[in-house]
Amino acid sequence: MDPKSQRVKLNDGHFIPVLGFGTYAPPEVAKREALEFTPFAIEVGFRHIDCAHAYQNEEEIGQVIRSKIADGTVKREDIFCTSKLWLTSLRPELVRPALEKSLKNLQLDYVDLYIMHYPLALKPGKELYPKDENGKLIFDSVDFCRTWEVLEKCKDAGLTKSIGVSNFNHKQLEKILNKSGLKYKPVCNQVECHPYLNQSKLLDFCKSHEIVLVLGSDTVEVLIQVNPNHPVLLEDPVLSAIAQKHKKTAALVALRYQIQRGIVVLAKGNNKKWIKENMQVFDFELTPEDMKAVNDLNRNIRYYDFHL
């Protein structure tokens, strides 16, 4: 991490801000929240915007970015914009059209990062979650190494500066890393990661291959909600005690813990107070004792079910 600019160098030479703004929201409010909270996030200092085709709000995110460029708040090069390739577009011939559609919606000539949303394919079509007459998802058979080859071509064409993956385990990453003719390694792997699921083995694997781990944007929102099946992370007494010591919130401690591990964090915000507060993550530092205490909280608990 470059502490002065608060960014991390990717394995292709580009830089990614370590704090990003996640734009995921439930479908019924995704567009409204994008228009309401993304401008505020940019105004208070967020420069890394994480979005995806599946979030169904890229047009709104694009409007916000263009308006903030137009009013002089930022220049295009100040914004690091991520989008994601959805499961229904993993067939090689569908990859570039999907990226071009996201670029059109975002009103951008390029994205800074384009990643495969999951190592799992669904039947191509307009539906995000195609299902059969019994309500079961219709899967597709795709070799995502072929998908990766088209992503490499999209990078060469300048449609995206960097390419990466999301929700990959180390074996799936190895499949790409070991494929013949690999031109570009994934620059990142965006996954669920928090003190109750610290992903230490995956983090070590990724670091050994110069792949940055990114904390998924929908995870943070889940953590502040009460889940009847799991403990509420941000009410953990260890986090609370460390937060009190530093005069910060438990959420900031959880985010700071990740940043000090070299992980890029995406803070989801549907509350202006929280959005502004998240910028305080750079105002303090956890001690080695703090880091060990948070690390020891690991329980291998997943709040987000990746098995669609």
UniProtKB/TrEMBL annotation:
<dbReference type="InterPro" id="IPR020471">
    <property type="entry name" value="AKR"/>
</dbReference>
<dbReference type="InterPro" id="IPR044482">
    <property type="entry name" value="AKR1C"/>
</dbReference>
<dbReference type="Pfam" id="PF00248">
    <property type="entry name" value="Aldo_ket_red"/>
</dbReference>
<dbReference type="InterPro" id="IPR018170">
    <property type="entry name" value="Aldo/ket_reductase_CS"/>
</dbReference>
<keyword id="KW-0560">Oxidoreductase</keyword>
<feature type="active site" description="Proton donor">
    <location>
        <position position="55"/>
    </location>
</feature>
<dbReference type="InterPro" id="IPR023210">
    <property type="entry name" value="NADP_OxRdtase_dom"/>
</dbReference>
<protein>
    <recommendedName>
        <fullName>NADP-dependent oxidoreductase domain-containing protein</fullName>
    </recommendedName>
</protein>
<feature type="site" description="Lowers pKa of active site Tyr">
    <location>
        <position position="84"/>
    </location>
</feature>
<comment type="similarity">
    <text>Belongs to the aldo/keto reductase family.</text>
</comment>
<dbReference type="GO" id="GO:0016491">
    <property type="term" value="F:oxidoreductase activity"/>
</dbReference>
<dbReference type="InterPro" id="IPR036812">
    <property type="entry name" value="NAD(P)_OxRdtase_dom_sf"/>
</dbReference>
<feature type="domain" description="NADP-dependent oxidoreductase">
    <location>
        <begin position="19"/>
        <end position="298"/>
    </location>
</feature>
<keyword id="KW-0521">NADP</keyword>
<feature type="binding site">
    <location>
        <position position="117"/>
    </location>
    <ligand>
        <name>substrate</name>
    </ligand>
</feature>
